[in-house]
Structure formats: structure tokens, C-alpha cells
Amino acid sequence: MKKYGVNELRKMFLEFFESKEHLALKSFSLIPHNDKSLLLINSGMAPLKPYFTGAEIPPKTRVTTCQKCIRTGDIENVGKTARHGTFFEMLGNFSFGDYFKREAIHWTWEFLTEVVGLDKNRLYPSVYLDDDEAFEIWNKEIGIPADRIFRFGKEDNFWEHGAGPCGPCSEVYYDRGEKYGCGEPGCTVGCECDRYMEIWNDVFTQFDNDGNGNYTELEHKNIDTGMGLERLAVAVQDVDSIFDVDTVCALREKVSEITKHPYHINEQDDISIRLITDHIRSATFMISDGIMPTNEGRGYVLRRLIRRAARHGRLLGVEGTFLAQLSATVIEGSKDGYPELEEKKEFIFNVLTQEENQFNKTIDQGLRILADMEENMKVQGKDKLDGQDAFKLYDTYGFPLDLTKEILEEKGYDIDEEGFQAAMQKQREQARNARAVTNYMGADATVYDEIDPSVTTEFVGYDNLTFTSKVTVETTETELVDALMEGQDGTIFVEQTPFYATMGGQEGDTGVIRTENGLFRVTGTIKLLGGKFGHVGHMESGMIKTGETVTLEVAADERKDTAKNHSATHLLQKALKTVLGSHVEQKGSLVAPGRLRFDFAHFQAMTAEEIAAVENLVNQEIQASLPVVTDVMDLEDAKKTGAMALFGEKYEEKVRVVSMGDFSRELCGGTHVANTGEITLFKIVSEAGISAGVRRIEALTGTHVLDYYKKMEEELTEASRLVKATPAELLEKLNHLLAENKALHSENESLKSKMAQSSLGDVMDKVVEIKGVKLLAAKLDDVDMNGLRELGDQLKEKLGDGVVILSSVKDGKVSLLAMATDAAMKAGAHAGNLVKALAKEVGGGGGGRPNMAQAGGKDPSKLDAAMAMAGELLEGQLK
After folding, report:
1. How far is 286 from 86, CA to CA, in rounded Å?
2. Coil, helix or strand for 196?
3. What's the pLDDT tens digit per position in 796-806?
4. Of the candidates 845, 847, 842, 844, which has an alpha carbon nearest to the alpha carbon of residue 860?
């Protein structure tokens, strides 16, 4: 048997099913589309749910894919075993009401034995306990002896996920040979050892589960097949694990080369090598689909993967950043199947390096926080770190539990792992409870789910703002109806519409739908599964019935302003790439009549000079009056022209390419001006960060820029009036007022300092000695916290070594300050704990570091009693 490579096997599978009249679709993005039940795509079937449920009509009833997938349920075990991984590719062939068990099983056998060339005698099928039909096909038609066909129960051979389509499945196991076995006499299919490996799973979706365990036969039965590409490669290449198949092995060896730690020498090193190998694959593919490291959702999954990999790099002695180098190897090994990796590689490298640098800073910050926690444990006489503290390090600073544990063990401390897990579980439950209730599709259940999937809409709005068409469906907010009457809110669907639906960042059109007898005010247009355009709004007068011919009129001025903003967005993206660099990638946008918003990948705030350069470049191209031309072409041809495409976007085979002279060229389905001169003006009104590595620009065009300047002029005039100056004199007047304010502030601070000194009097005679440590505790009148800190520094210097505790009441509130010198801390003094105890007595709270801490309180009447306790509290701390 030839030992085919991963890339060869992927190609062989897709071509085999294309020969069986399947449509080969490219892998969907890892970001689920309209599916809130998943953070990340985790199976070949997941992005095809709409076709299985009938919510959307598939492009063909037979489909085949190789889908990139991520599963993080066993992330803690990745690296510890060679079995576990987070990233994998899932080969699949799917039938939507077309062929069923017979063809699926025959093609399974044909591909494995005749195309790939696996030994027939080493293949063992399994079927669901009651699935006699599948058993008969394997036994009578394929010719597998009955004693080599295994019947398993629901847990192993029945696929279901709550309510919805479900059914029995048939798996195929491959006997890898005795060298991979456990050596036990009863070792056979189903054994926990690595000898018999499941490589193929045919799911026969033939039932519908109502959610209460009641099953009914589906009218249209489906086939959902899954085969892990890397698992197949393990069998074909006869290697130990997924970490040894050709492409993954090349990456694993690169890890060893960079870290200077060979594989299979030290088990602890091997754990780190496997973990880094797996995690960098996941991270590379996630970033290529536009996922950015954040502290929530799929962004947090990415951040955790990158940080775990970076941390294990540190364990192997890597200094500085190294993940971008490894990502280059991932891209080289996978670009045959996923060309987008090569297209986005510079961006992927940038994100990885930025996050790695951020973690290197964070981990050092975490170490300092942990040192403070150790100090507190020492003062409190504890030998175990609280689980909540360990979780804070993990959650806030990205500090892995095993690192916290390792550092503490070196110093003789333990860790409350149960408390850590409890805090982790609490966070998971909060996240789970926050999820919206969804249907089987993972989308919010709505009235639109009841519409016949065959209903669709043709968009004719590129060339028309008014059009006549026939009403196909009407709904209120809760049900399908035959007519909408005056006063009702609802949605109207028609065969053809000039209304653009919200998509691609562009807001949907507004306007009216009218007949002789009725007027419907459209407040928004939405696009639903199956290409349906819903006109959402309010029936202002009369009635409109299903089947009637209506006139649809788009609000022309709003559409024109939206077109200006959309075309300006294209100019903006190109200008940003020109000024900031090619790493700039669109992360989101909003195009509305009154404004535009553009989110993009960039790793620091833009300078005023950069903003001005971008703005000037956009206006320059507007003044050049560039022709805006739209061409419809094949996706591959469009990419060859250099047209920019969006991250993670799934495009049709035919796409629209919008060109603005030679300056900008993008794939875009939105509406645009005919010439950039129509935009007239462009103004950036804000630039800010919205998440790690993502910036947001808000801008205006056309008459909205003039309105913006008019408002600014009004505010300038009002500001001038307030300081009794003309707009021309305003700058000079403000500089004069600021200088005057600064002088008065300085004079005020000087007077406050003198008053505080006066209030203090000669306090050095109040110094007492406790167990060899000097303590100065004094109460002052009407001094704020800044004053206390200044006096505290002076008194600490006068004292030499010891502890200073100061308090004051100002505006009815208590301020407390404690300071301890190095010698006092060595003797056991802890300013943070002293202040915390004193604050408790005056109805407040606070704390801080061992050397300096401050607090507040609400009950001045108890301050004298609290200060009297200072000596006793310090004595309790000293050794």
C-alpha cells in the first residue's frame, strides 16, 4: 500500500466523490454563520445544518467537503497524550434527500479499499444495535463475515443532539496491528488501546427527535459522513499518532529545531512539543479566518491557545517570540488545501507576534502579583494559595494553573485546586446562562422559520429604485398571514425587489411599498436563509394581501448617501493600507446614510499625522473623480485581478468586483456611486481601539461633513463667548487662563502643605517602640490623601526605620495611610494589613502593598479608638 501524504489524501477523497456526482465545496470558515450554538465549527456537518433541516436549499443534493475544525473540550489533555489535539480536518460526503445507506456504505468500502488501498481483512464495520438494514448491506452486499461486523448501542452508534434530525451510524475500524495493541487476550474492536482505530463514520439521518425521546421517520433521509483526515493518514502511513503524519511531523520537527529539544528524548519535553505543534495549527487557521485574540468567546479560545503555546516555549528555553516562525511551517504544509493561508500570512504572523509580546509582558506582571500573594500567605501563616487567587491569575493575567503550581511548590507552598476549579465552573455556568435560547440551527427561533424554503427574492436594486412585483409571503411578528392591515407591524416578501437588504456592513434600504389600497412603510430590509429579502415595517394605511402586485419605492436620498459612504469605505481601506501598511485588514464595517464606521486590524493608535494622511489621500481620490466600475466574474478570476476579499467571508462562484480607477478594487455586493466625485467630501471624526489589535474609524461624507463643520463653528462661537473672546482670540485667551490656573493651583498646594505641617505640629515625640520597631501614629485635621502621602514621606525619612500611620477627617470622610520601611517589613510589618484592619473599625475598606497602603472610612466618630489600636495591631504582626 502506498503511503499517501495528507494533501494527497484530501485531493483523492474530494475527487472520488466528485466522480460520484457530488459538488465539492471549499471548507467553510471556522466562524459559524447564523449559529449561536457553536463558538467554532467543530465538524464537517456543522456549517451544512441549513441544508439538512430544509431551511435552505443546497446547491446540489450531493455535496463533499474537507472542513477545517476545532474542538477544545479536551484541551487540558493536549500534549499529555499523542491522541489529543484541537485542530483537525474532517472529510465528508453528504446527501440531502438523495442517496441513502446502500450507496453510502458501498462508496465507503470502495474508497478505503480500492482508492486508498487499505487491506480489506484489516477493516471492521460497526452498526447500531437495531440497524439490520446496514448489517445486511455490509454482510450480504460487501461480503464482510457476520463475526467481523460489530453491533453497538446508542452511546456509540446513534447520533443525536437534543431535538432535531438524528439516526443510527455505521463506523469503520482499521486494525493497525499488534505493535499498537495492549496485548490482552480479549483485545478487539472497541478496546481502549490504539490497535483498532475508528477512521470512518456514516451517519444515517432518518429520524426526527421531538426532544422527549419520541422518534418519527423523516420524509427526506440524509447522509452525513465524517472521516478525520489526519486519522486516515495515521492508518495509511502506518505511524504512531497524528503528530507523526507527514505535514504535522514536519511542524513537530520545526518545533524541536527552534527549541533545540529533540522529540522522544524526554517525556516532559515531548508534552510541550506536542502541545505547541497542535496549538499553532489551530491558531494559524483561526487567525486566517479573521478571529483575533480577546478575553471572550472564540477570541478567548485563540488567546488561550497562543498563550499555552508561548508558555511551553518558555519551558523549553525559548527566549523572545517564535510562533510566527512555526506558523510559516503550518502555512507551507497546508496551503495546497487552504490557499487563504498564504494570502493572509503576513497578517497571521503580525497577530501571533503581537499576542506573544503581550503575553511576555503579562506573565511578568502576573509573577509580581503572585509575589504579593506569597507575601500575604507568609503574613497570615498560610501554606496554601486560595483557589480564587489562583483563578484571578489565570483569568486576568492569562496565567496557567500549572505554572502557578510549579512556582509555589519551589517555595514550599501548595495550591487550592478545588477552589480554582469551583471558580472556573462558576464562570462557565455564567457564560452558559448568558447564551441565548436557540433552535436546532443554533439561531434565535423566529416566525421566519415557518416560511417555505423554496421562497426566494431576486434583487434588482443596482439599476432600479422603483419596481413592481408580486407579494409571496407576509408575516406579523408572530405568524404567517394572508394580509397585513392598517396599524399592524410585519414583514413583506416579494419576488423581485429594488430594496438592498442589510449585509456586508451596509444597512438595508428604507422606503414604501404601495398599492391602490394600501401603504406599507419599510423601516428596514433583512436578508434571510435561502436568499429571501424581508421588508420590515408598519402598515400605515389600508391593506396589502399575499399575491397582490405592489410598487416598491426605495428612499432615494438615503440610498444616495449610503452609496457615498460605502464607496468612501473602499477608498478608506486602500488609504489605510497605503499609509499604515499591508497588515491592515477589515474586521467589520457599518455603512448607513448618515455615517460610516470601519473596523480594521492595526496594533497601535493612529497618530494625528497618520489620520491626516489617510483623510487627505481619500479626499484626493474623491477630487480625482475616479469612475466606479462593477464587473461580475468568477471568484478565482476576481482574486487574480488583486481584488481585496473579506476575512472568513464565503463567496459565491460569481462575484461583483467594484473598481475605483486604479486606486481600489474589492469584492463587494453593495451599492455605490458612479463616480468618486459624487462623494464630494470625507472627514474622519474619531479613531479608537475597540479590542486587542482592532481599531475603529468613524467618518462622514458629503453634506454631513458640512453639517459637522457647522456644528463645530457653533460650538467654537459659544466657547469664545464663555471666556469673553472672539473665535480669533480664543487660543490666546485659553493659554492665558491655563497659565493663571496653574499659578493658582501651585499657590493652593503650597498653602495646603503649610496647613498640614501646622496641623501636624511636633509629632516626633509621639514615636513609640514596639518589639524594637519604631511606630509613629498621628491623627491630623482636615488633610486630604495627597497631603497625608506627602507628610508620610517626610516623616518616614525623619524616622529612619519603622512604621508611620497617619489619619485625617476631611468633609466627613476618614483617610488612612500606613508606610513601612524595609527593616520594619523584615521584622514582619505589613502596611496593607495594618490599614485594612484600621479601616474596618471606621466603617471602610482598603489595603495595599506591604510597604505602603491607604484606605477610607465613613465613620469619623470611631477614628480615635481605631488609632489607639495601631500599636496593638503592629505588635501582632512582628516576629
Report:
1. 12
2. strand
3. 888 889 999 99
4. 842
Which three cell numbers, joined as nine digits, stand for 295?
478575553
At residue 40, φ and ψ (nearest 5 deg) are -140, 150
Place of cell 457530488: 22
Calpha distance 692→294 (Å, rounded) = 6
Torsion of CA 238, 241, 244, 245, to 10 degrees: 60
Q: Which amino acid is at 137?
A: I
Other CB atoms within 10 A of residue 723 CB: 12
**CB atoms near residue 788 (< 10 Å):** 22
- Cα 206 from Cα 217, distance rounded (Å): 6
Q: Residue 482 and residue 639: Cα distance in Å, rounded? A: 45
**Positions in the chain whose pLDDT score sits under 70:** 398, 400, 402-403, 406, 410, 428, 430-445, 647-650, 752-762
Residue spans of beta strands (DSSP E) within 476-614: 480-481, 483-485, 489-494, 496-497, 511-514, 518-528, 532-545, 549-554, 586-591, 596-601
Contact assessment for residue 472 and residue 523, using Cβ atoms and an 8 Å cutoff: no
Q: How far apart are CA 711 and CA 649, in angstroms?
A: 39
The count of other CB atoms within 10 Å of the CB of residue 503 is 14
Report yes or no: 280 and 330 within 8 Å, Cβ to Cβ: yes
How do 150-152 and 158-159 pair as beta strands? unpaired
What confidence tens digit (pLDDT) does each residue in 666-705 have? 999 999 999 999 999 999 999 999 887 899 999 999 999 9
What is the pTM (predicted TM-score) of this model? 0.71
From the list 583, 499, 485, the residue with the least C-alpha distance to 541 is 485
Cα–Cα dist 157/139, whole Å: 18
* Burial classification of residue 509, based on how many CB atoms lie within 10 Å of its CB (0-12 exposed, 13-18 middle, 19 or more buried): buried
Any residues with CB less than 8 A from the CB of 172 and at least 6 apart, and which?
108, 112, 123, 124, 125, 126, 198, 199, 200, 201
Instruction: Return the C-alpha torsion angle 376, 381, 385, 387, nearest 10.
Output: -100
**CB 819, CB 796: distance < 8 Å:** yes
777: helix, coil or strand? Answer: strand
Q: What is the pLDDT of residues 107-147, one digit of tens each?
A: 999 999 999 999 999 999 999 999 999 999 999 999 999 99
Question: b/e for 156-171, b at 16 or more Cβ within 10 A?
Answer: ebbbbeeebbbbbbbb
Query: Cβ(483)–Cβ(455) under 8 Å?
Result: no
Strand runs labelled E in 653-798: 654-660, 664-667, 682-691, 694-701, 768-770, 773-781
* Kind and range of the H or E run holding 249: helix 246-259
Q: How many helices (H) and strands (E) does the chain have?
A: 25, 34
Tell me what pLDDT residue 445 has. 65
Task: Give 157-202 pLDDT, tens digit per residue.
Answer: 998 877 778 899 999 999 998 888 888 888 998 888 889 999 999 9
Q: Which residues make Cβ contacts (< 8 Å) with residue 488, sequence separation at least 6?
A: 476, 538, 539
